[in-house]
Design goal:
Number of strands: 17
CATH architecture of the largest domain: 3-Layer(aba) Sandwich
CATH topology of the largest domain: Rossmann fold
CATH superfamily of the largest domain: P-loop containing nucleotide triphosphate hydrolases
Strand content: 15-25%
CATH class of the largest domain: Alpha Beta
Strand order of the largest sheet: 3-4-5-2-6-7-1-8
Number of domains: 2
Length: about 425
């Protein structure tokens, strides 16, 4: 590739064998300082972002330039950053001045004789986003970022050099990203696009129809139609409405049901107890405790609550622990986690909350439980499978112990488990 052959952005695209589809072309043609693309799953946002960043990096300039790929964490930032490095390595290796995977730093010679420095950045440590002026910035999975990341840390980096930013993300509720998207029709500096999955002409329509038939409507609208929904992605509704109770000491003659989610590495072991009216009466949460001591603590609590019926996550380390608890004389049963079995647990607890058939402790009594329930969310894999999990950086141990106890206390005839 030589300066003579590069006439514009789309010439650069042709030189790297990138053919944007029509909706991607609309976004590439924009020169707005702030560009917001709300994209459905597999629309092609990562490819779009990588191509846009690469073109900006090699376009002629007589001064050094700087661009960032920013995402909520390094794993997400790497999706676009690595695609840029792949383009450079395979199509224009002669332009590479430095390529450091460890530093997430790529330096390219641009077509004006100077160079562009490209870095992959995580928003986990906002202080790392300070100090440097930017010519451009790709903000990937923007809807997952804290509002102040854009407003306080990134926007200011673009001012001196009159740089531009491209935000790409699947929508997530009606937070700051939705507000930025809406401003695209009001603020002349902002241009916005809603890009459903079906706008990608390369997507198999039969596959898409099969996905639509099996996922919940809210997930379809958010993840595939790129719609901003109130409370979208939330698995558990009515959490605060059911957070009315208090912990309680055991009562003679009462039947209790316990759920035990065992710690894995940095997670917590959580034991939660329900009474026969499905009121959460006890919760304990701990980590970094030897297994033998954990078994003793669980045994003591279950015996105190009238030999509570105990359901345990028996996946991995849970299998021998379940055996140890049985040998200790507890009424215990293992529940191995698979995608389907975990979905059934979560579905059952969600139904109980919706139908007001379970009572949670007040927030002041059990803040970890309430926070985890409210944060627990749907996500969709690139293959179209629905996953229900805690957001990145949060735990789900309280959720799963509550779901296990609720499963043990359920009446199977009350309602059918329907989540996929």
């Amino acid at each position: 590739m030589s300066p003579a052959t590069v006439l514009d952005k789309f010439s650069i695209f042709r030189s790297i064998n990138y053919e944007p589809h029509p909706r991607q072309v609309e976004i590439h043609r924009s020169s707005a300082p702030v560009r917001v693309a709300a994209c459905g799953t597999r629309f092609g946002k990562s490819t779009l972002a990588a191509a846009e960043a690469f073109a900006a990096s090699v376009e002629p300039s007589v001064r050094p330039r700087r661009g960032w790929i920013v995402a909520p964490n390094y794993d997400l930032a790497d999706k676009v950053y690595r695609e840029i490095t792949l383009i450079a390595r395979s199509c224009t290796p002669e332009l590479i001045l430095k390529d450091s995977e460890h530093e997430r730093l790529l330096v390219l010679r641009n077509l004006g004789g100077s160079f562009t420095e490209i870095r992959g950045k995580s928003a986990e440590n906002p202080a790392s986003l300070m100090g440097e002026g930017l010519d451009w910035c790709i903000v990937d999975e923007a809807a997952r970022l804290r509002p102040d990341i854009w407003e306080r840390y990134l926007m200011a980096r673009l001012v001196d050099k009159r740089g531009w930013a491209l935000h790409t993300s699947t929508p997530k509720g009606r937070g700051w990203y939705n507000a930025l998207f809406i401003s695209g029709g009001k603020d002349p500096r902002v241009e916005a696009w809603r890009c459903p999955t079906i706008d990608n002409p390369h997507i198999d329509r039969e596959w898409l129809a099969a996905v639509k038939a099996r996922v919940p409507q809210a997930i379809w609208e958010q993840e595939y139609e790129a719609a901003f929904l109130e409370g979208a992605g939330q698995v558990f509704r009515n959490v605060r409405g059911r957070a009315l109770g208090e912990f309680a000491e055991p009562k003679a003659g009462e039947t209790y049901f316990a759920g035990l989610d065992l710690a894995q590495t940095t997670d917590y072991t959580v034991l939660l107890v329900l009474d026969s009216a499905r009121r959460v009466v006890h919760l304990e949460r701990y980590n970094r405790i030897d297994w033998s001591l954990q078994v003793q603590r669980v045994r003591t609590t279950c015996e105190r609550y009238n030999s509570a019926w105990l359901l345990v996550d028996s996946t991995g380390v849970g299998a021998p622990i379940t055996e140890d608890l049985a040998e200790a004389g507890l009424r215990v049963e293992g529940y191995p986690f698979t995608q389907a079995s975990k979905s059934a647990l979560v579905s059952n607890l969600s139904m109980m909350l919706e139908k007001e058939q379970i009572t949670l402790p007040r927030y002041e009594v059990a803040p970890d439980l309430i926070d985890e329930l409210e944060a627990f969310e749907y996500s969709v894999t690139d293959a179209g499978a629905v996953k229900m999990t805690a957001p990145w950086g949060m735990h789900d141990d309280c959720v799963m112990s509550c779901a296990l106890a609720a499963w043990s206390a359920r009446d199977p005839g009350e309602f059918e488990v329907v989540f996929v």
